[in-house]
Amino acid sequence: MMNYDYNTQRKRMELPEYGRNVQKMVDHIKTIKDRDERNRAAKTIISIMGNLNPHLRDVGDFKHKLWDHLAIIAEFDLDIDSPYPVPEITKLREKPREVPYMQGEIRYLHYGRIIELMIQAATELEDGDEKEYLTTLIVNQMKKSYITWNRSQVADETIINDVRVLSKGKLKITEGVRILEVRELMPPPKKKPMGKPQGKHQNKPFNKKKGYSRH
Fold this sequence. Notes:
Structural class: mainly alpha
Oligomer: single chain
Number of helices: 8
């Protein structure tokens, strides 16, 4: 009776993206008794790992990353002379810290939390050019977000009213605040390049004997 080698029956791989063959090579060099030979084998595996994942070449400390991965694949049980310190297993396996989220509901989802924070910051500024400039940025970003979210036009009075609501009446739209037109806020749609007509000879003289000229 034939015995099948299923992946579910094999040893679990720490980094499956390198494949089963790399895992086997790493398991094999653990059995090499000569340290120098073991070091040479480790460098060979590092080269193979680099070729299997060329996208890592764009990552800072590319070689360091590969040596860290080798240690992980070997389950930190590989006695070699690594050019980099072996990563601490406790740091790799510790749970990530929770990302703190701001509490409270967002009044207008299409504007988002950042707009609310910007409005709050603007209300705390003294009247002047800086406050006027920030208010201009806010109202135009609000108009752009509104159009992007709702896919429709919006009256400037709607934006001004929303500013009033979000700022609880503290942020005024002065004469120096210019609300841009939609065409100024939204980039024009990209035109599709026109392809050349297929199967037609253009601007080429016809010769009954030779057909269309190549010149």
